[in-house]
Amino acid sequence: AFREAYGAQSRRFPNYGQGQGLSSRQWWVHVVKQTFRLAGVCDDGALTLMAENLYQDFCGAHNWEVLPGAVETLSQCRQRGFRMGVVSNFDNRLESILCQCNLRHQFEFVLTSEGAGCAKPDGRIFQKALRLGGVPPEQAAHVGDDYTRDYRAARAVGMHSFLLRPAGQDEEPEVPPDHILPTLSHLLALIEK
Questions:
Q1: Residue 8, Cα to own-chain centre: how many angstroms?
Q2: CA-based diameter of the chain, in Å?
Q3: What are the backbone dihedrals phi and psi of residue 155, each rounded to the nearest 5 degrees, phi first?
Q4: pLDDT 10s digits, 154-174
Q5: Contacts by 108-112 with C-beta closer than 8 Å and gap 24+?
Q6: What is the 3-class SS of 50-85, one letter each residue?
Q7: In degrees rounded to 5, what are phi and psi of residue 7?
Q8: CATH number of 67-189, picked from 3.40.50.280, 3.90.1640.10, 3.40.50.1000, 3.40.50.2000
Q9: How far apart are CA 193 and CA 188, in angstroms?
Q10: CATH topology classification for 1-58
Q11: A Pfam family in this protein (predicted)?
């Protein structure tokens, strides 16, 4: 039910309904309510309460998990002088979530699709990130877990790109093996090649 509700809302109101006057909060509340409606819950008062509570719950770190090796990898990248930023198809809660997960200090900027006004794979979000980072595309690398939105989209604007793909997940035939990260901890070894 969630996939159906999320997909319908994304098609009708892309990028959290920003171009149609919605806030990301309104967008998510509708998705949650529609998810439960599709599952057979009809009490609108209960749906509103659940949706508001879930939205608030996902503002905090307790509902998110930091990838194994992320803290160490980010720290090592910063020690080597890499300028890092976050480019995400998420709403503006992300910066606060990163703070609560004790990760925000690792990044010079956080660019959400809501804040940028466009979402990956749109090249404009990567161009904005490059401007924020102050680097040309050929000196930048993007790490992501989605072949189309991350890997191909970053390469389309001239960036280097790595696909985070744990062992056992489907492989993308067009991705060279040295562009695939089985874990985030593999990043430094690939960059230093």
A1: 19
A2: 58
A3: -65, -30
A4: 999 999 999 998 766 677 778
A5: 108/83, 108/84, 108/132, 108/133, 109/85, 109/133, 110/85, 110/86, 111/85, 111/86, 111/87, 112/88
A6: HHHHHHHHCCCHHHCCCCCCHHHHHHHHHHCCCCCE
A7: -65, -45
A8: 3.40.50.1000
A9: 9
A10: DNA polymerase; domain 1 (1.10.150)
A11: Hydrolase
Asked if 30 and 1 count as a contact pair (C-beta separation under 8 A), the reply is no
Q: What is the pTM of this model?
A: 0.90
| Encoded tokens for 169 | 């997940």
Q: Are 85 and 129 in contact (CB under 8 A)?
A: yes
13-36: pLDDT as tens digits: 999 998 899 999 999 999 999 999
